[in-house]
Amino acid sequence: MWLWILLALIAAIIYLVLTSYNSLQRKAHDIKESLSNISVSISKKVNLINQLMDVVRGYQESEQLTHLTVVKETGMNAIYSSYQDSNMMLTNLQGMAERYPDLKADQQYHRLITNIEQCEHEISQWRNEYNARVKAYNSHRSSIPTIFVANGMGFSEAPYLDLTIENAEQTILKDFKMDDGERLNALFKSAKDNIVDGSKALASTSKVVLDKAADTSKKIASSEQVQGIVDKANVYMGKPSTTKFFYLLSDSTPKGPVKIEEIIMLAEDPNWVEQVRLSEVGTEQWMSFEEWTTLHTQPTLQLQQRDI
Predict the structure, then answer these.
(1) pTM of structure
(2) Contact 238, 305 (CB under 8 A)
(3) What class, spelled out in words, does domain 228-307 have in CATH?
(4) Of 298, 302, 256, which Cα lies nearest the Cα of 278?
């Protein structure tokens, strides 16, 4: 019974762990997805700024301009650095356009500026979605029992993203971490080993208890007192008895010992019934067949008649 209780408890714990783990994984992937969308939009903005830089060079080749590097990482620091670099370069290019009226009036210049503004709007939308998902994730992570699973599986608290310069210190945080499956596999392996060890120990203990109970039962069953009780119970239940008897006829010496079933068979002879005297083994009392029948076989006969 204790084994079943232990297994049920382990199953309940595993269910809670898996449920919490799956919900954390799902919300963590949502955060990663939003962060990836931000990275894509920033990369798009960087490409447009590089194109704008080429337009500016066409009007003033003496300007020392170097293309920005397109961000390929989705880490918090890489995204923040790329975004700030693109903003500073855009500010410089717009300042140059103020010094060159023809550049400021260029249609391609205006088209690129418009596209960059659209990218900025996309980045803002993705950032809002990212922060909303971070809020939902952190709230779920801090609940019980999810927080125990999160700490055990390496799900760190997700940082909010603010791309403004004045919040640079708050923005550059540790990258968001989530479980890659290794810790979950290690947990299952540990749980499996514990279950096997616990089952073996419980089985060993149960075997010892059962062996002791069997030995005790054998000792009790072998006692003469209990054997007598068993014999009487067998008679009442219509089962063969182990009690034996001597029988004595008027012209012979005592014979036996014989079982009760043999006496009943001999009693089929009316002459034998009239002459016989019976005595139970271990006693010195002799009785007639009628007395013996009342004492030893009446319960059996009554039971047989009732069954009929």
Answers:
(1) 0.53
(2) no
(3) alpha beta
(4) 256
